[in-house]
Design goal:
Helix content is 72%, strand content 0%. It has 323 residues and is mainly α.
């Protein structure tokens, strides 16, 4: 048996998620109140907490259903909450959070197809959620070929019927949107909006604020360390769990590349990256063993605290100037 260190008590404790949720809620609501912005739009006072709460719940259920961490732990949801709480600029309710909301349900449905070539319904729902999220950020559809490959290689659940279900799931949100455009009498605007969404824009690093660059840099570093740890210790997981994590890792690499290539889209890409990073980081922080893992846990906690202080200080400074 392993000695119950403070790290293990935190990562496997039953109170970890409730305490983290309360802390995140305070971080969401307190800064605007401290600034005395009584007349600010309500979206600044907590509406953005709803998508985060729904994503956290989906992550917890996803982890419970697939036993991603091998031990009883709520670290997947807690890790996501800590990451998103440290980025106050992402707390406001906006449509760029729709891809984040759709990613976990897409994973959830996709993983239900494991080893089942007749899982037509789950396949349809997986790609429907992915396509629904693309209404908030169209390039999210670029993940569809990656998930299809994962369904063929890792999940071994692809068949002709499943492929047809995947295509229908991808097309349905756009069919509904086209129907709405026809009813509104402006179908041309629908096609122009689609063309604009898929127009490739050259990278504009100056468009990304420093807090976004710093957050990306920290998450990228932690992800690379967690990825290396997982590939080194993957043999401890069941084959089923390994296949799931290989898909998550493939998506993680794509998201890291997308953040580096399109920094101007940080409002949609960063929430996606934080959500996809949660199971990888939680697996590393919960299951790593050795004295070095204890030190690394506190290094990660200190780095996250420093990032949160910098991000909130920057946000408060901007508010003070604007008000």
């Amino acid at each position: 048996m392993y000695r119950k260190t403070p790290r293990l008590r935190y990562t496997t404790g039953s109170l970890t998620l409730p305490v983290t949720a309360v802390l995140a809620a305070l971080l969401w609501l307190v800064p605007p109140l401290l600034q005395g912005i009584v007349g600010a739009p309500l979206r600044l006072l907590g509406y953005g907490l709803v998508p985060a709460a729904l994503t956290t719940y989906a992550l917890v259920e996803w982890n419970n259903r697939n036993a991603l961490l091998r031990v009883r732990s709520r670290m997947v949801g807690s890790t996501y909450l800590l990451l998103i709480a440290a980025c106050p600029a992402l707390h406001a309710f906006q449509w760029t959070l729709l891809p984040m909301l759709s990613l976990v349900p897409a994973y959830f449905a996709l993983f239900l197809t494991y080893g089942d070539r007749r899982a037509v319904g789950a396949t349809f729902h997986a790609y429907f959620f992915l396509s629904l999220g693309s209404l908030g950020y169209a390039p999210l559809l670029a993940l569809a070929p990656l998930l299809l490959m994962g369904q063929v290689v890792q999940l071994r659940s692809m068949s002709g019927r499943c492929l047809g279900a995947a295509l229908l799931g991808l097309l349905l949100p756009y069919w509904l949107l086209l129907g709405y455009a026809l009813l509104a009498g402006d179908p041309m605007a629908y096609f122009l909006r689609l063309a604009e969404a898929w127009t490739f824009a050259p990278p504009r690093p100056a468009a990304a604020p420093m807090w976004a660059v710093g957050t990306f840099g920290m998450v990228a570093l932690l992800s690379i360390v967690a990825l290396g740890h997982y590939l080194r210790t993957a043999y401890n997981d069941k084959i089923r769990t390994r296949m799931f994590f290989y898909i998550i890792i493939m998506v993680q690499v794509v998201l890291l590349g997308a953040c580096a290539a399109q920094p101007q889209s940080y409002e949609a890409l960063l929430p996606l990256l934080l959500t996809n990073s949660a199971p990888l980081l939680a697996h590393h922080l919960t299951l790593a063993r050795g004295r070095g893992s204890e030190v690394w846990f506190y290094v990660c906690a200190t780095a996250l605290l420093a990032l949160a202080i910098l991000n909130y200080t920057n946000l408060w400074s901007n508010w003070s100037i604007s008000w």
